[in-house]
Amino acid sequence: MKRKLGPRIVHALVLIIFVVLLAFPFYWMVIATFKQNLDLYNVENNPFIFTMRPTLENLRLLFFETRYVRWLGNTALVGTIVVAITLLLSIPAAYALARLTGRWGERLGIGIFLTYLVPPTLLFIPLSRVVASLGLQDTIWSLVLVYPSVTVPFSIWLLMGFFKSIPKELEDAAMVDGLTRFGAFIKMVVPISKSGILTVVIFTFTLVTQEFVYALTFISPESQQMVGVGIPIFLVRGDVYFWGSLMAACLIASIPIAFLYNLFLDRFIAGFTVGAVKG
Amino acid sequence: MAVASARVKSIGAAPSPWLGAAMFGPAVLYILLLIGAPFGLAIFYAFSDARIGGGNLHFVGLENFRSIMQSPSFHKAVKNSIIFTIVAQIIVMVCANILSIALEKPFRGRGLVRFLILLPWVAPVSIGTIGWKWILDSIYSVITWVLVWAHIFKPYNAPMWLGEPTLAMASVILVHCWRLIPFSTVILLAGRTAIPREIPEAAAIDGAGFWRTLFQVNLPMMLPILSVALLFGTIFTFTDMTVVYILTNGGPFDSTQTLPLYAFNTGIQGSDLAAGAAISLFLVPVLVLIAYLMLRVARRTEVV
């Protein structure tokens, strides 16, 4: 059955328009990254093409004359520790709510999901005092402390759905074979939940790179910045924006994350849809 | 035999509250300490005279709320937060519906298209926004270049996208839409693929055209998922301060001021913790409403 030409053209047009609108800023980052400053800052030149030879100067400046590498390092470190904390807190909690607590566990699960709706812009003022009184201000440890409060609720919710889909008979069999309930959880359930756990890892790491408000509020020294705050705030000297390096920094920080997130997209969506989609 | 199988079943089904409590206790404690307690503290601050570096706190009653209510910036912030959220959500829902229809059936290159379309949602917000700041630059804007090239504006005479109140507001809305369309699209896509094939097909056999099937069959069936996308989108726009902070920092002349940004500028930049906390509390009614609606959606779909 051949589809008619008209609808196919409309279909292609819709896709092209949206792809161009949505991906354009990233294409624009690529162009700016490799342009010489004289080319970039000449309004007579066509901005879509390279009037002068492409250059790696912007990348050199970014990597050797700014703290960019340090920010990437900070982000990776905070991301790794927050992932560890999130897993330690959310895996047991999700299992308990899925299997051990019966009816009110479900209610508690929804309650925990609702805390995910509490935005940083509501809590950053009191938390800035909490962080200061613990002596964590201006260090990445303030973020290590606070970020799990954002990642744990959603992770519990994701994992709860995952654990519920595992047949109960698996643990029953393990317990008949002499394992305790907790032993069955560690030895049977966790190993076969690898893909659910990996989803939480990616989700948490992505969230750490995306968060802006807490990082901006708690940390002021340039060397302690996360990549998401360092780029927009510290790659600007006075009023001068180094657009070439700035765009290079944006590109390098966002593409790997985008790639990872894309791999696990369907699972995140299942978490967001709150059971409004069956199957 | 029947007895034995019943017993085996009961091991798995039996809730063990103590082990359960021990396993979710730490997570709940963490959430209470880092979400519940700061929320309480925010309310406490809002009724006090807390300042960064200040000494003893005093209870001042409704004083903070009274002075906020008198500030023109605050009125501007409330109005803008509401306008930005509503306008952005209308645009996002229309675009996401169109885009999710276009992405539903498999075609060559769908994976790549999906990756490109998702970039705005997946890349860090602050980074995507700084990309837009370059696109909307007062001198080197590519949009300006194209408009000059097309002879719509004379060189050096084009509008300043982030420098004029109406255009700045439009720019903020644009960036919010740009960021949220991918998110809403994938959520709607999940809802769309969950509609049993036979139902729209039956409608088509009964003579319903594309539009009729869309409005009388598909959209009503997708109502729960549409509300989920809408509710999340509302939260993400209403409580966001990153986009405005980077794009305009509320300017020019407070024309893009929003509630979260005003709370930040007052509470952190201006060291007036008490007033900042009071301003951010104005987000709460909207959040409560959204949480309530979210629960209704969740409950209704559980019954179906």
Your description of this structure?
Chain A is mostly helical. Chain A has 15 helices and 2 strands. Chain A folds into 2 domains: 5-47, no CATH class; 67-272, MetI-like fold, CATH 1.10.3720. Chain A has helices at residues 5-33, 37-40, 57-65, 68-100, 102-115, 120-133, 141-146, 148-164, 169-176, 181-192, 194-210, 213-218, 227-234, 243-263, 265-272, and strands spanning 236-237, 240-241. In chain A, strands 1-2 form a two-stranded antiparallel sheet. In chain A, a hairpin with a 2-residue loop joins strand 1 and strand 2 (240-241). In chain A, helix 3 crosses helix 14 (243-263), helix 4 (68-100) packs antiparallel against helix 5 and helix 13 (227-234) packs antiparallel against helix 14 (243-263). Chain B has helices spanning 2-13, 17-46, 63-70, 72-104, 110-122, 125-135, 142-149, 165-193, 198-205, 210-221, 223-238, 242-247, 259-269, 273-281, 284-303. Classes of the chains: A mainly alpha (279), B mainly alpha (304). At the A-B interface, helix 1, helix 4, helix 5, helix 6 and helix 8 of A face helix 1, helix 2, helix 4, helix 5 and helix 6 of B.
Layout of secondary structure:
The complex is a heterodimer of chains A (279) and B (304).
Chain A: H1 5-33, H2 37-40, H3 57-65, H4 68-100, H5 102-115, H6 120-133, H7 141-146, H8 148-164, H9 169-176, H10 181-192, H11 194-210, H12 213-218, H13 227-234, E1 236-237, E2 240-241, H14 243-263, H15 265-272
Antiparallel strand pairs in A: 1-2
Chain B: H1 2-13, H2 17-46, H3 63-70, H4 72-104, H5 110-122, H6 125-135, H7 142-149, H8 165-193, H9 198-205, H10 210-221, H11 223-238, H12 242-247, H13 259-269, H14 273-281, H15 284-303
